[in-house]
Structure prediction request, 911 residues.
Amino acid sequence: MSTAQGYNFAYLDEQTKRMIRRAILKAVAIPGYQVPFGSREMPLPYGWGTGGIQVTAAILGPDDTLKVIDQGADDTTNAVNIRSFFQKTAGMATTDRTREASIIQTRHRIPETPLVEGQIMVYQVPIPEPLRWLEPREGETRKMHGLAEYGVMQVKLYEDIAHYGHISTAYDYPVRVNGRYVMSPSPIPKFDNPKMDNSPALQLFGAGREKRIYAIPPYTRVESLDFEDHPFQIESWDQACAICGSADSYLDEIVTDDKGGRMFVCSDTDYCGERVAAGHTGEEQAA
Amino acid sequence: MNKLLQVTDLSKNYGSRIGCEGVAFDLYPGEVLGIVGESGSGKTTLLRCLSAQLEPSAGRIAYDMRTQGLTDIWSLSEPERRMLMRTDWGIVHQNARDGLRMEVSAGANVGERLMAVGARHYGNIRTEAEDWLTKVEIDTGRIDDLPATFSGGMQQRLQIARNLVTQPRLVFMDEPTSGLDVSVQARLLDLIRTLVNRLGIACVIVTHDLGVVRLLAHRLMVMRRGRVVEHGLTDQVLDDPQHPYTQLLVSSILPV
Amino acid sequence: MYVAVKGGERAIENSRRLLAEERRGDTSVPEVTLAQIDEQLSLAVDRVMTEGSLYDRELAALAVKQARGDLIEAIFLLRAYRTTLPRFGYAEPLDTVAMQVRRRISATYKDLPGGQVLGPTFDYTLRLLDFDLAAADNAPEAEAADAPLEGGMPRVTDILGHGGLIEPEEPRDEQEVGDLTRDPLRFPAERDVRLQSLARGDEGFLLSLGYSTQRGYGKNHPFAGEIRLGELAVEFVPEELGFPIEIGEITVTECQMVNQFQGSATEPAKFTRGYGLTFGHCERKAMAMALVDRSLRAEELGEQAKAPAQDQEFVLYHADNVEASGFTQHLKLPHYVDFQAELVMVRRMRETAANNAARNDDFEEAAD
Prediction:
């Protein structure tokens, strides 16, 4: 194995990895429950994916193929940085292809290409506690989870509708896992929430600074909170992707000049590239 | 009729200091009990114990649970007790800020208990909130306003609506009218009396104001230094006080 | 045609090279050595060791050099290195009475066994820029005393303890001392874990919090019972030997604040303590730590706990500068996706508002 001098495979020592795996197992056994773990100091700053990195390091083997994305793209600085960290310390294969990856570490997106059995999603989580904005005290929020007292979460949604006519949470939209724990899906756009529901892939969430790990096992019910008469809705665009013409993917807005010119393209660069390779075109390409 | 609340030999100490001691009484459905005494007499400690906000040092508080009859509330699990507190009970605090969620609208304040017990239809929650605002004489046009924009009397009425929305059978009130202007007090008392009568709610009201209990309470307990010194029908206690302390209280506070 | 931005990898590599060049600065100026940093910027090294939780002067000096003098960055470097080190176990508790004292002062007694020892301190310097220092040939000397200080100087708090005037400080044998670097913080946190968190905590943050208690946000009437600085031997019991051996000597600063306690229904009035300990000479930090340690004991002592410095969760969750720095600076990471989601939401809200306004206009016109 080609690894960086002086460091263990995938950086963490084996004892630490076992500790993290135990936390992961507990998290899988209690879907949506935040398991405290002895998060280590990593050579990357807190808030930059240290939780996701520790989870990935604990489950990564030499035969794995790793994909790292940030904002849906493999080439954003943070994704590049994390991928090269694992290349250096673990030397396993990496890919941009969602289909080819056995582990996908992500910040803020779920790939458009549907996940399959055997794949593992690892989410980087800044604030794992969905109740944090309503109750700053950890002692109290843990009690609320323990007793499943989630009325206050609904109060927040009620307020949104009362003031704006609809629920105004756009990302990190809270979900209820397996009918029990309310969970933060990490700051993915709510567009991605439905992809978590009944996913064949295992989904793991790591928060390094806040020292929590939680999980959604494969084929688990994940519901976005809402009201019967104001059901959960995802974002939609009037445009299709200017490059590949996809009308059902999450779009990034690209500012093309300083006079209000804009275009919309897929945030998932791998998905977009695959569609172009398969012969799909968007406005931009056609023009 | 079944007892709603049965209190036996209740005491609460803070170290060597006595909060309240040897308190015992029964409360029946729809009955209003007043607890009076000067500040420091232990009446607020007693109320906090009765309403499960403070664990007593000794004694028993049994409540007539809908499914299992008289049950010691401290034998319940914490989730059961918290559920009881936000469904079958209500607590109206002296300071509205302690009883309201100040950062969300009046409608959300009233709807919170409904949502806590599983209501998930926005339209229905809102209709119910409007209904309750009307009952406590708050203009439904204020439903989306924050409680901070309300007057003191309105905040107290909102607090009452927030508690009554789950149709509790027992409501605890801690000095509900103190800190309000005299005219506002009168209107609030009138409203409480009407609601309590109409809905048949049992109430325990703590106050230092004998005028409040004369208007609202069926029965009266007079407390001094943590102990109950006199207990009886309100009119009886106020018109013919037996204990010297009660006599003093009545003569000094109730101008004839 | 628009092409998605590529080339992140190369850009990052270039940025790293540029950083290395800037770190070195003008090559006509001699490069600073680790020995120079250790000897002449020794308080920077002390702070990095303390908050980095690793006693190694050379590595701390390297971290200061690598971080271009940015101490929080240097602390981060040292912590990230520390976490990879194998653990052999925990050292024996230090006994600060055994300290080779270089400085020891008390604000509570004019004179006391062992005396007041000023040692090296900024306290009595006039803060005038010393232009002689700008020259590079300084070799000041201090006169040595005739005899070394006597060892075994008693702690002021022990002197108070003889009269039963101060709470005793007893180890809790039944429970292992917590370790934040192994286990996550849990609330309510016990004092051992709180002290560890404060020792690792940011000096500036603790300084401001401690200061806030003096200004009335959770007042606890402190006196600087004693501050001492000096060298101590560290002992360790290897499993295979079963008895303690000395593994080295470290410099520490200890501060014991003495605070009034009014007493309660069950306890008479007495003095209580706030404790601060740092590696090296970090006097300001040790004092701030002691103030905050005491204020975090408010609840345990039955005092009203309303001020920020008395709030465990607030203090302990926000004291660590490596965590705080990382999370503050993570705002530099791309947030395009979330921002896009907000854009869609804000546009929708504006549309709704505009439609409502238009409808109201129609309504009013109809009413006219």
Remarks:
- Strands of chain B lie at 5-14, 17-27, 32-36, 58-65, 69-72, 89-92, 170-174, 202-207, 219-224, 227-233.
- Residues 101-166 of chain B form one domain.
